[in-house]
Amino acid sequence: MRCSCCQKELISNLTLRELFFSPSLRCYHCEKLFTRIEQRTTCPGCGRADTAELCQDCRAWQGKLGFVMGNKSLFRYNAGFRQWIEPYKFTGDYRLRGAFATELAQYLREYRKYVICPLPLSTERFEQRGFNQVSSCLDSAGVTYELLLKRKELAPQSEKSREERLKMIQPFELNRPNEKIRNQKVLLVDDVYTTGRTLFHGAEILYRNGAETVKSLTFAR
Questions:
Q1: Which ranges carry the Phosphoribosyltransferase domain (predicted)?
Q2: Chain-centre distance of CA 79, in angstroms?
């Protein structure tokens, strides 16, 4: 059996409980890369760790747009998480897509009544990478989703400063008739929550086309 992250052979002997009930099948080294966020002590708007109240950024978004995102994140974005996402997202190591598939599938059970919608890549970025890093993780977790949005051809977010991200124009348009959206609860899924601007853009389009509720899940914050 191989580590779901680095693909190296798991040399330790797994107990039956670990084999069938463990939240992950990662080696000791890779397990240390992922620091889970305790959801009871996070901002209810963006999932920022270590604060149980609506943070200043979310209060600003609420004042500007009239709603908060209701984002939750699985892991802290730290040096360990970067060791996973950089080769996966920027080098294109597709094998890493299943690094936390079990946890992702378990977590998304909370959203059974939601339409799951991964944020899309631009055509150019998809052709460069060969896959969507978010939907590939969902595929690995066996999660069904809808591609409700498509992205306009704009500069990649990873190349923008925080200020440029916040000023970014609407990058999305509908990829499905709004009948798929009207009166639906939608969960947007992205890899990393940075400023929240991209997720809010997605939510704005969905609300404009009749979505009942829009929340988000990101792999890291």
A1: 133-220
A2: 18
Torsion sign (Cα): 31, 135, 43, 60: positive
- Please, where are the H alpha helices in the chain? 16-21, 28-31, 56-65, 79-85, 101-108, 123-129, 133-140, 162-166, 197-208
Cα gap 112→117, rounded to integer Å:
13
For residue 68, which phi and psi values (nearest 5 degrees)?
-110, 160
Query: Bridge-partner residues for 216, per DSSP?
Result: 71, 188
Closest CA to 211 of 190, 172, 185: 185
| Tokens read off for 20 | 């069938």
Cβ burial of 156 (10 Å; 0-12, 13-18, 19+) is exposed
Distance separating alpha carbons of residues 75 and 104, to the nearest angstrom: 11
pTM: 0.87
DSSP assignment of 32-60, as one string?
TT--B--GGGB-TTT--BT--S--HHHHH
Domains present along the chain, CATH in parentheses = 33-220 (3.40.50)
- CA distance linking residue 160 with residue 139, whole number of Å: 28
pLDDT single digits (tens) 165-191: 666 789 999 997 788 899 999 999 999
Q: Using the structure block, give the residue that is written with the tokens 């680095």.
A: 6
List Cβ neighbours of 155 (8 Å cut-off, separation of 6 or more): none
The 10s digit of each residue's pLDDT in 90-125 is 999 999 999 999 999 999 999 999 999 999 999 989
Residue indicated by tokens 């939601």: 114
